[in-house]
Design goal:
single chain, 351 residues, 39% helix, globular, binds flavin mononucleotide
Length: 351
């Protein structure tokens, strides 16, 4: 029996491709949606014009539903001394590649919490689904999107965040376990994090929250999808499983690392962007292992340096400073076209 959410999302399979800013692409989103899942765009770093172009690029390939994902983080509290200290900390590493760190750091992406232009664009384009990561927008923004007929999803990592989403009028929650690749969706990165794994989180939310649950974190194949549905999830959202797909924007260094021993050693770090995120073990994660959280500038100010360091190192032939996000299921990633992976996942499911 099909769950009403699946019908509302307009999909044939209980499979959502995770929005992955910088890694997923319009071609990937269209391919997954055409194969019967829900494709997604991660537009958090794209700006309004870039996001609109990405939406147009999906629509040029498919008229099926897809998800557009934005970040709703608390805008960063700037701290000049901390930012200067952070630049100095990494100066010797830049020097290793014959480069200088940036003289100052920027707030490199606008939170959807305050981005009126992004809201206006989404209301004009009306994608079938919009999803929120890092928190929830205010009630006026939620009401406007709902009135435009958009189905709303939000990442949550705890029962408290799930209840906040329910109160705010979100349609379904993406329950993101500690295993998950990429940024942890935590509303408050400085608050207590119970670090619930996907199994416990999905079950708690399925039992104690009225919203439909979409499970995320460590799900790599049909067996994983079956398992979370047995726990009460309506569908599964997979990120890491899609990184090695043909349509992914992951560069050669990232793909090589994903296929290497590093996949067995993912690590949660906030040094790359300023927020906790799970990454393949690489030079950036090992060089920042013992850094205190209060030395790191707020998200996304730290990310400005992280991206500059990745670019400087890559220009010097070292790809190990990239934001090579991946979940604990990384050793199970498969390289194939996204539509084929979606169909393979469906064929592996038993239920
Ligand atoms: C490379 C990568 C980028 C990600 N970027 C985003 C993003 O832009 N927005 C978002 O809501 N989640 C993002 N995530 C998290 C996913 O939505 C999801 O929670 C996660 O991929 C699930 O765990 P898995 O990677 O083990 O499948 C990202 C994950 C990865 C691996």
């Amino acid at each position: 029996m099909t769950h009403p959410l699946i019908e509302r999302l307009g999909i044939d399979l209980p499979i959502l491709q995770a929005p992955m800013a910088g890694v997923s692409s319009p071609a990937m989103a269209a391919a997954v949606s055409e194969a019967g899942g829900l494709g997604a765009l991660g537009v958090a770093m794209a700006g309004v014009a870039g996001a609109q172009a990405m939406i147009g690029a999906v629509r040029a390939r498919s008229n099926r539903a897809f998800n557009v994902n934005v970040f709703v983080h608390t805008p960063p509290r700037r701290d000049a001394a901390r930012e200067a200290g952070w630049i100095d900390h990494w100066r010797p590493t830049f020097a290793e590649f014959g480069a200088e760190p940036p003289a100052a750091l920027d707030n490199i992406n606008t939170s959807f919490a305050i981005d009126d232009a992004m809201l206006a664009m989404l209301l004009a384009e009306r994608p079938a689904v919009v999803s929120f990561h890092f928190g929830l927008p205010d009630s006026a923004r939620i009401a406007a999107l709902r009135a435009a007929g958009v189905t709303l999803l939000a990442t949550v990592t705890s029962l408290a965040e799930a209840r906040a989403a329910e109160t705010a009028g979100i349609d379904a929650i993406v329950a993101q376990g500690w295993e998950a690749g990429g940024h942890r969706g935590l509303f408050d990165p400085d608050g207590d994090d119970a670090r619930l794994g996907t199994m416990a989180l999905v079950r708690v939310l399925a039992r104690q929250c009225a919203l439909p649950v979409i499970a995320a974190g460590g799900i790599m194949d049909g067996a994983g999808i079956d398992a979370v549905r047995r726990l009460g999830a309506v569908a599964a959202q997979l990120g890491t499983a899609y990184i090695a797909c043909d349509e992914s924007l992951a560069d050669a260094g990232y793909r090589t690392a994903l296929a290497s021993e590093a996949a067995h050693q993912t690590t949660m770090t906030r040094a790359i962007s300023g927020r906790p995120a799970r990454c393949l073990a690489n030079r950036f994660t090992s060089a920042s292992r013992n850094i205190a959280a209060d030395a790191i500038p707020a998200y996304p100010v730290a990310y400005d340096l992280g991206k500059a360091l990745a670019a400087a190192a890559k220009a010097g032939g070292e790809t190990g400073f990239g934001a090579q996000w991946a979940g604990q299921g990384a050793p199970l990633a498969r390289a194939m076209p996204a539509a084929e992976l979606t169909r393979t996942l469906a064929s592996e499911m038993r239920t």
